[in-house]
Amino acid sequence: MARLLSVNGLTTEFRTERGIVKAVNGVSYHVDEGEILGIVGESGCGKSVSQLSVMQLVPDPPGRIVGGSVEFEGTDLMRYSRKSREMCAIRGNKISMVFQEPMTSLNPAMTVNRQMSEVMIEHLGFGAKEARGRSIDMLAQVGIPDPAKRVDDYPHQLSGGMRQRVMIGMAMLCNPKMIIADEATTALDATIQAQLLELIYDIVNRHRTALVMVTHNLGVVARYAQRICVMYAGKIVESGTVREIWSNPLHPYTEGLLSCVPQLGKKLVPIKGLPPSLIGRPKTCPFLPRCKHRKDSCFKEDMAELTRVSGQHWTSCSVRLEERS
After folding, report:
1. Are 28 and 8 in contact (CB under 8 A)?
2. For labelling, which of 28, 65, 72, 230 has a CA lying 20 to 30 Å from the CA of 78?
């Protein structure tokens, strides 16, 4: 498969009264055409900020992308400013994003038709009538009943699941090369979550669209993704195929996430402690205070860079690498 997106050394900071927060700290990964990549980690690890950085949607101030490159189809998006014509032509057209909370993503003062039509009028040059017809067709594709009527509703007239279906439909209007689903089903109940995940999976496979699935749930990405990147404290600490990560986790944090995946007959084992502050943290491994594999040498060493274990499997835990060798 051809390389679609290549992120190298991406670093995003937020200026606060207490100091500089390194929300994303030298993150590198790639996405191939038609591939599904899962990015997992607990709240505050930098998953969402990394994707907002790719889309140039980090609020400035207080946020700022300070380093790295984001190459999409061979072009470095960091060359463009947030509001540049080139970047606006990519967002919603070649790269779409489905956000976590559709009520804050959809404009409450605009009908569904107007919001969906704007995308096609801007990027595809559609007229109002043609855009309305495609909006109705897309609502039908994402499973909204009576789409010809619902297209004229306002967001508050729709349930949470239906609003998220509208967001998924909007993301697909221009047949993008890649979709970023940022915790797209987290705020919904389990039944609706399952339906929407299957809907997203079906749509991206049907259109051969690449998908970056951002979630805290390893079980979800194990079902749908081909590869996984595990993030902690603004960095990727392990990456590999689903099979490699699931069968042979080589970072203690990945092991901890796997122990939190619900399974019949298995007791959930929480990860003790809390994530570190991202303000002025030490150069040692950020997971060190919570790690059950730590050694005295860990307190004296800088955090190891990602090291290839085998195939597409990479880890930053030097202790586990020593145990393996």
Report:
1. yes
2. 230
Exposure of 179 in the CB half-sphere (CA atoms within 13 A): 27
Q: Bridge partners of 149?
A: none
Secondary structure class of 200 (helix, strand, coil): helix
Q: Which of 16, 28, 2 is nearest to 237 (CA)?
A: 28
- The neighbour count for residue 214, using CB atoms within 10 Å, is 25
Amino acid, res. 214: V
Q: Where are the beta strands (DSSP E) in 226-306?
A: 227-232, 235-241
pLDDT digits (tens, 9 = 90+) for 69-85: 999 999 999 999 888 99
Give me the sheet containing 75-76, strands edge to edge.
19-32, 3-16, 63-72, 75-76
- Per DSSP, which regions of 74-185 are E strands? 75-76, 95-98, 178-182
Report the 10 Å Cβ neighbour count for 323: 10
Contacts of 159 (CB under 8 A, 6+ apart): none
Alpha carbon distance 237, 253 (integer Å): 8
The tokens of 296 are what?
């005295």
- Tell me the pLDDT tens digit for each residue of 296-313: 888 877 777 898 988 899
3-state secondary structure of 314: strand
| Sheet with 95-98: strands ordered across | 95-98, 178-182, 210-215, 36-40, 227-232, 235-241, 313-315, 307-310
pTM for this structure? 0.92
Which residue stretches of the chain are H helix? 47-54, 85-90, 102-105, 112-123, 128-141, 147-150, 160-172, 190-207, 218-224, 242-247, 252-259, 318-324
- Taking alpha carbons only, the member of 162, 177, 181, 170 closest to residue 118 is 170
What's the one-letter identity of residue 234? G
> Which residue has tokens 């069968």?
247
Q: List domains and CATH numbers for the chain.
A: 3-93+211-312 (3.40.50.300)
Residue 44 burial by CB count (10 A; 0-12/13-18/19+): exposed, middle or buried? middle
